[in-house]
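A favour, since you know our structure tokens better than I do. What I am after is a single protein written out in full by you. Could you add the entry underneath, on a fresh line?


***
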Amino acid sequence: MLESVKISRRQSEIRQALADLVGKTEPTEDETRSMETLDAEYRTNETRYRAALVSEDEERREAGADLETRTDQERADLIDAFEMRQVALALDEAPAGGCHG
């Protein structure tokens, strides 16, 4: 999973936790400390998120440049390998007992 996606998910969790805490009319000392800790983590993650996006964008550009130099067969082979990895990942992440849907 991309680092930016991981950070984005954590940011969402932090926002939810802060929303729960901010809604309290008289937070305890622990809750106040928790708000401060979550706020600091959120600010740090914003910097990390921007850095991850820059890094991932550079990786995408390099990968795109690499693909432009490949033959049609090499591209087809890469796409096939990618699709197989996606299938394997989906099967690996599926809940025990198979798919239910």
User: Anything to note?
Assistant: Residues 29-68 form the longest helix (40 residues). Helices lie at 3-22, 29-68, 72-93.
